Every structure is written in C-alpha cells, then in structure tokens.
Amino acid sequence: MRLLIHNQKGGVGKTTTAANLGAALLRAGRARAVLLADLDPQMHLTAMLGAGTPAGAWNVADWLSGRAGAPRPVAEEPGLSLIPGAALLPEHMVLPAQDVPGRWTLLDSAPGWSAQIEAVSHWAELVLCPLEPDFLGLSGASRLLARFDEIGVPRSRIRFLLCRFNARLGLHQDVQARLTERFGPELVMAQTVRSSVRIAEAPGFGRTIFAHAPGSNGCTDYEHLAKGLAPAGTPVPGRNAA
Ligand SMILES: Nc1ncnc2c1ncn2[C@@H]1O[C@H](COP(=O)(O)OP(=O)(O)OP(=O)(O)O)[C@@H](O)[C@H]1O
Ligand SMILES: [Mg+2]
Q1: Whose CA is nearest to atom 20 of ligand 1?
Q2: CA distance 76 to 73
Q3: pLDDT digit string (tens) for 47-58?
Q4: Which of 133, 210, 225, 238 could form a disulfide with 172 if both were Cys (CB 3.0 to 4.6 A apart)?
Q5: What residues form DSSP beta bridges with 106?
Q6: Is the residue at 236 inside a domain?
Q7: What distance in angstroms lies between residue 241's CA and the mean position of ligand 1's atoms?
Q8: For position 234, what pLDDT does the model report?
Q9: Mutation pick for ligand 1 pocket among 4, 15, 191 (CB with most ligand atoms within 8 Å)
Q10: Residue 36: inside a domain, yes or no?
C-alpha cells in the first residue's frame, strides 16, 4: 500500500502522523513492514527517527533516482524502517513500480506544492491530509482538494485527518462538522488525533508515541486510525499467502 501524507499547509501533523501511523500499522497487525520515506528537505522525520544516520548515507534522493540501497531500521519498532531525507529531490523521479507484499510505504511530504508532490500524489493509492481544526485549516482543505481535482487525483483516494483535536472545544467540533458537511463523511476520517503533550515530546526522545508513552491517548488514536485505514478482514497482502 502506498500512502502519501500531505498538506500544503505547514505544521499540521504530517511528520507526526507518518511516524506514529507507521508504528501503529505494525502494532495493530495491519502491515508486515512499513517503509517511511522522508520527502521533506527539512528532514524532520529523519531527525525524529533516524538517530545515527551517517552523513552521506543512502537517502530518499537516491531511492527516487532508482539507486539501490537499504533503509535504516527504526529502533524499538520492529518492521519499521526509514529512508532518510535529502536536501533536494531529483527532478525526474523513478518511483518504484511494484509493492512488496504486506508492506506499507508512507511518504512524509514537505508543505507547499511542487512537481514532485504532484508525481507522488498520482503514485500513491491513498493521500492522507492532516489538518488543524480551525478556520485556516478548513479553508486550506478546500484549496488542497481543488488542487487534487485539477491534477486529476480522484477524491476517492483522499482522506482528511483532524490532528491536535480537542472535542471539548466548540471550534473543533464546528470545524469537524463543516468539513464533513462540505466534503462528505467518506473523505473525513472519523478518527481524530487528540492534542497531546506526549505526542509533542516524543520526537525529542527519537521515539514514536508507542515507545515513548505506551498506553497514552496518542497510542489509542493512532492505533484506531491504522484500523480505520486498514479495516479488520482486509487481508494484509502476503501475510496469509500460501
Ligand atoms: N496530536 C498532537 N498533539 C500535540 N502536538 C502535536 C500533535 N501532532 C503534532 N504535534 C506537534 O505539532 C508540531 C508540528 O507537527 P509536525 O511536524 O508533525 O507537522 P508537519 O505538518 O509535518 O510540519 P511541516 O509542514 O513543517 O513538515 C510538532 O511540534 C509536533 O510535535
Ligand atoms: Mg513535516
């Protein structure tokens, strides 16, 4: 399964979701392996989970140029591995043609818009768009969807995910209701990710939320999200293969 995590807007929870959803898919038994690719030149995902990555190591620019190499295993998360980020992505990308059975590839995108983001939007089977539950998040979601419409990414492949959610706030409930009303429930993940200090502090320890604060709300939310994206009964490709 190829999943792009994107929003033009910055700081909405893309990288946090890539790391923690990746771990959640494995822990919930919904994937046999998860490959995280850091497409963002800010390299936040690499800073978060790529401790000890040597300078000059095989990276996402090599991967997208078709050069063979090995992703780096993420500590404490069996099955999770990372393709470290690069300062520049190649102009002409060679996106892998074939999926490894049972593996999810999660791409953590940079904010903004680029030819590379367009290319990976077409390559991905699903585009997950984290957003914050406020007015700018809502108007940004409309603009983002219009962009995907323009380049021909079908709406059936797009999902919005409310992050840093607080159900006690009227504003958050209102944005959730308006998002669902505007785009339809099929485009909006019913599961939200609650605002959590534990989630915000985990990157400082180089860990996912599962390793940092087992049993916390963040674990519950990302695990439910994983199950929502890969519902029970969906065979994990390759898992039960003869
Ligand atoms: N559910 C949450 N609760 C609390 N803090 C969160 C949550 N999700 C993300 N954050 C924090 O919000 C900040 C932005 O998150 P993140 O880096 O994942 O966003 P991003 O969309 O990847 O940003 P960029 O566009 O710069 O790549 C980080 O400090 C992160 O720890
Ligand atoms: Mg990011």
Answers
A1: 11
A2: 9
A3: 999 999 998 999
A4: 133
A5: 3, 36
A6: no
A7: 37
A8: 64
A9: 15
A10: yes
Q: How far is the CA of 154 from the centre of ligand 1 (A)?
A: 27
CA dist., res. 60 & res. 54, Å (int): 14
Listed as ranges, residues in the chain with pLDDT below 50 are 237-242
Q: Which ligand is nearest to the CA of 216?
A: 1
Residue 235 forms part of a structural domain = no
Q: Which residues contact 102 (CB under 8 A, 6 or more apart)?
A: 31, 32, 33, 236, 237, 238, 239
**CATH of residue 38:** 3.40.50.300
- Name the closest-CA residue to atom 23, ligand 1: 11
Q: Are strands 80-83 and 72-73 parallel, antiparallel or unpaired?
A: antiparallel
AA letter at 206: G
Pairing of the two strands 103-108 and 126-131: unpaired
Task: Output the six-digit token pair for 220.
Answer: 């519950």
Task: Specify the pLDDT at position 216.
Answer: 98
Predicted local confidence at residue 239, as pLDDT: 39
Q: Taking CB atoms and a 6 Å cutoff, what residues make up the pocket around ligand 1? A: 10-16, 40, 42, 44, 111, 163-164, 193, 195-196, 199-200, 203
> What pLDDT, on the 0 to 100 scale, is given for residue 236?
53
Q: How far is the CA of 238 from the centre of ligand 1 (A)?
A: 33
Q: Give the number of the ligand closest to the Cα of residue 46.
A: 2
Residue 112 lies in a domain: yes
